[in-house]
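Researcher: Watch the backbone:
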Amino acid sequence: MAVTFATTTPIAPARGAIFTPTLLRAGMLAIIAAALVAGFAVTGTQATHLAILHDGPALTRLMRFMAGLKAVMVMAASAAVLWRLGAAISLPRLVAYAVTCASMAAGPGLIWGMAHIGLGALLLHGGLFATLLLVWFDPAVSARLAGIIAART
């Protein structure tokens, strides 16, 4: 039994679609930025100062470095999602991408505040894992990648 893969051109957005890829990407960037800011804002300055006093400056520097590193991971996964939004997408899949991106974007902000490190790590890693699964099993991603490979060969 032979398995064949479609090598068609990338999936284009439907004509007359309400949301263009540019608008979808701008909306997703706004959701990611809002979640990141919310992650920073959730921890008040009082709770942050108490956590820093309790944990000490060395652990605070380490955790903030880790929050920065995790923010880079969020940017990489978000870039894959933004690339994915260049093709037509169903509303449930769009909502799933928005929820997972918002979840993983809130994580570094919570970790930076030092008062909710566990919750920040849970949101970040859960959102990152869910985003990777969504991208991995998304048929539009495989179609767009097949189109890129076909264009190069």
Summary: The chain has one domain: 21-152. The two ends are 25 Å apart (CA to CA). Helices lie at 21-42, 45-55, 57-84, 91-113, 117-136, 139-152. Residues 1-12 have pLDDT under 50 and may be disordered.
